[in-house]
Amino acid sequence: xxxxxxxxxxxxxxxxxxxxxxxxxxxxxxxxxxxxxxxxxxxxxxxxxxxxxxxxxxxxxxxxxxxxxxxxxxxxxxxxxxxxxxxxxxxxxxxxxxxxxxxxxxxxxxxxxxxxxxxxxxxxxxxxxxxxxxxxxxxxxxxxxxxxxxxxxxxxxxxxxxxxxxxxxxxxxxxxxxxxxxxxxxxxxxxxxxxxxxxxxxxxxxxxxxxxxxxxxxxxxxxxxxxxxxxxxxxxxxxxxxxxxxxxxxxxxxxxxxxxxxxxxxxxxxxxxxxxxxxxxxxxxxxxxxxxxxxxxxxxxxxxxxxxxxxxxxxxxxxxxxxxxxxxxxxxxxxxxxxxxxxx
Length: 344
Fold this sequence. Notes:
Layout: H1 12-19, H2 23-30, H3 38-51, H4 57-62, E1 69-74, H5 78-83, H6 85-100, E2 104-109, H7 113-125, E3 131-134, H8 144-150, E4 154-157, E5 168-170, H9 173-187, E6 192-196, H10 202-217, E7 224-227, H11 232-244, E8 251-254, H12 257-269, E9 279-284, H13 288-291, E10 297-300, H14 303-318, E11 326-327, E12 332-334
Helix pairs in contact: 1-2, 1-3, 2-3, 6-14, 9-10, 11-12
Domain HTH lacI-type: 10-64
GO molecular function: DNA binding
Protein name: LacI family DNA-binding transcriptional regulator
């Protein structure tokens, strides 16, 4: 039978009583010190989880003279991560700040959010990290409760409505999507589609809602969405499906650069001229957008600077400062050769 949490503030004494050990044993377990068996350690952790108790993060930080390691877990396939320009730039921005503090990044790929929860708990309890950067928030993200109860110092990358009270850094994707749609509509496009990420992914949901809302405001209907997993193969498949449809779009907005490049290849394969027959608009504006022919129009933002700002905010959290969530610069339109008025 699980032990109910006592009324009022839970203390280390309550955890010790629930686990049937001394307060010293609880301290040894949470500080990853010898003196308790692995079975006892797990029993202590289980009791702490039931009671919603975690060591005071400020007190723990006093035991260290400096920040040594920051954690980042990514729920992405390794192959996709290697091809994804966004995360390469984002991580380079984080590293630029960590280098100033002589601090390391502990990067791990995970297969699910549940796996990430287990990983973050182990990192924190074994003192492998001083804090973590949390990315790719979902609606009602399952990581929030366990990691807040753990006392993990962390910064969320996402809109504050998604990050559950963790200080966050984000881009105003809704405003950027509206700008993209209004630009294409001003060129004369009336059939505009969007190739985006999974609907339960927080920033994809924000972009999808902004896309539909702006299309409705312009009297163009809701527009078409195709959900993908962000890869080039998925971008190509989505583009092919849209172009084979009976009422094919004259413009497509993509959620990242690699899918837009793949879409450009599909258009060429199918004999669809870009931009005369089809306009394409990418997102992030990596070097890929300037290496294609025609060059890709994009919603451009400083991804390296985004990562650097996230790291700076985490260091403020670790220093015990009061930190509020903040946006970075909104992505802005960079017109190039892949967008033009549609043919009559």
